[in-house]
Design brief:
single chain; 190 residues; mainly beta; SH3 type barrels; OB fold (Dihydrolipoamide Acetyltransferase, E2P); 3 domains; six-stranded antiparallel sheet; 55% strand; flat
C-alpha cells in the first residue's frame, strides 16, 4: 500500500477514497491568491460508475488502489446478462450486468478476450480495447446530393450497435471504430 501526495493524484491513477476504488479522470493543481495549492479532481467510482469532484489539499495523502486484472473471454449477451468465461477454460463461466460491462460493451464481438479489473478480489469492470474492427450489417443506400446533413448516415454493426458513418460506407464493409467515443475512425476493407 503506497500513499500519494496531493500533487501525485494525476489522470489515469487509481486511488482508494472512503474504502472505495476510484479512477482519476482529471486533475488540476492550482493556487488561489494567498492560499495553499489545491488539486481539484474528477473521480469515477469504479464500483458504481458515478463521477464526483474532490479537492485534495497540501496536507492530504491518499492511498493508491491496487487494481488487479485477469484475461476473460466475452461469450454472448442475452436479456441484460453478459456472459464471460476464463480465457483459458471456457467451462468456467460467469455473468455480469450491462452496467458492469459499460457502454463499450456494445462493440464486443463473441470470443473477444478483454481484461477484467479486480479490486480486493471483487470484480469492478472491464478494460475494452480502444479500437475495434466490425462489419457493417445494415446500411441505408446513398442518396445522391444528400450532403446537407454533413454526409453522415446511421449503420448497424455486427454486434447490434448503431453508429454514424460517412455516406460512402456500405453494407458488408469492415470499419474501425473508437470504442471509448463510439465514433467511426476509418474503413478497413470488405
Amino acid at each position: 500500500m503506497s500513499l500519494l501526495e496531493y500533487s501525485e493524484v494525476t489522470e489515469k491513477k487509481f486511488i482508494v477514497l472512503d474504502g472505495q476504488p476510484y479512477e482519476v479522470i482529471s486533475a488540476h493543481v492550482f493556487r488561489k491568491q494567498q492560499r495553499k495549492p489545491v488539486n481539484a479532481t474528477k473521480l469515477k467510482n469504479l464500483m458504481t460508475g458515478k463521477v464526483t469532484e474532490y479537492s485534495f489539499h497540501v496536507s492530504e495523502k491518499v492511498e493508491e488502489a491496487e487494481i488487479e486484472s485477469r484475461e476473460v473471454k466475452y461469450l454472448y449477451n442475452s436479456r441484460g446478462e453478459w456472459w464471460f468465461s476464463e480465457a483459458e477454460d471456457s467451462s468456467k463461466r460467469f455473468k455480469v450486468t450491462e452496467e458492469q460491462v459499460g457502454p463499450q460493451g456494445k462493440f464486443l464481438k463473441a470470443n473477444t478476450v478483454v481484461e477484467q479489473l479486480l479490486f480486493r478480489e471483487q470484480p469492478m469492470g472491464f478494460k475494452v480495447p480502444i479500437t475495434a474492427e466490425l462489419r457493417v450489417v445494415e446500411a441505408p443506400p446513398n442518396v445522391k446530393g444528400d450532403t446537407a446533413t454533413g454526409g453522415q448516415k446511421t449503420v448497424v454493426l455486427e454486434t447490434g450497435a448503431t453508429i454514424s458513418v460517412p455516406l460512402f460506407i456500405n453494407e458488408g464493409e469492415i470499419i474501425r471504430i473508437n470504442t471509448e467515443t463510439g465514433e467511426y475512425r476509418e474503413r478497413v476493407g470488405k
